[in-house]
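User: These chains co-purify. Model them together.
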Amino acid sequence: MDITAIIEDSFHQSDFLSGITEPQAADILNRGNRVRLKSGEILFRQGDPAYKSFFILTGRLKLIKLHEEGKETILRYIGPGEITAIISVFKGKEYPATAESIGITEAVGWDKQTMEQLMLEYPPLSVNMLRCTINRLDELQNRYMEICAEQVEQRIARALLRIMKQSGRRAEDGICIDFPLSRQELADYIGATIFTVSRILSTWEKKGWIKSKREQITICDPHSLVLFSEHP
Amino acid sequence: MIKIDLDMTVQELLAHHPRATTAFIKHRMLCVGCPAQAFHTLEDVVRIHGCTLDGLRNAIREAIEVNLAERNS
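Assistant: Joint model of the two components:
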């Protein structure tokens, strides 16, 4: 698929390309290398030298961080129009997490030199990357505070609502989370056990707040979930 | 008179009429900043919060128009 056709889709929603015109975006994307990943393929691994940053054209990445004892935590999901591995613009750094594709994913990667050149030629890119980093730091701080201060049920509710807000799609019976999300992944995302997550999701399903079929989660009653997340 | 479409999402309404925020706040509705605001329409809001269609529309209109009047005076 021609890159300019894909640009149209990811361009309008892309914070990374904010303040960049379409011809400029085409230049920026054409100066990187296209990568196409099958479902479940690894784009980069935690601990490997960080050579490139990546911009997602279509599909989605899951960023996983591994603990010493082998437990996985899901840091976040990266969707179309979003950039990841910005750290590669700095010398001698490693990828802080492993990126795995969810579904077929197409991305563009730039090495350090190319990205530095692009940042000089197109100043909005630097500002956008800074804004992106600050927003993600903000989100992680909030999630950290939730872990310190809040009960696990609230954290699950907030996580589902956060993911719903980022990747939700209006469906007949509510707002559907637009990619497969298993109970294990949800547990890895909030730092709880799968047993706790399963138990709580079953309770909410009985209440009619959510529907969950084969890793497809639909929020049927966002209002109740929001109220619950604020005052359990 | 300002047209308020019931199948507008809360997000769309607030993008066109930021002043409408005060209507929700005044009636203690958590719609502003809600994770569902990009998906829920005004019709959904009525169903979920148990208010009437006209009640909501009037409250929004009042919030927009009163604020406009205050700005112009």
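The interface with chain B takes residues 161-162, 164-165, 168, 170, 175, 219, 222-223, 226-227, 230 of chain A (CB under 8 Å).
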